[in-house]
Specification:
The chain has 1 helix and no strands. With 53 residues, it is mostly helical. The protein has a domain of 32 residues. The longest helix is centred in the middle third of the chain and has 50 residues. This is 2791_t:CDS:1.
């Protein structure tokens, strides 16, 4: 393989790695949002219970 072919392969691998990292970051953020929404629902339920008491 020529140097330019190796460079292209390395650049492609780097782009894929960056894309995978971005996808992982988005998954983490999405999970965080879901956790916050669940916590919010739990707080609302708790406050409703306190009003009933």
């Amino acid at each position: 393989m020529s140097n330019s072919e190796n460079q292209t392969i390395n650049e492609t691998a780097s782009i894929r790695s960056s894309r995978d990292n971005e996808n992982n970051i988005f998954k983490v953020l999405e999970n965080n949002v879901n956790d916050i929404e669940e916590d919010d629902d739990e707080v609302k339920l708790y406050l409703q219970q306190k009003k009933l008491d």
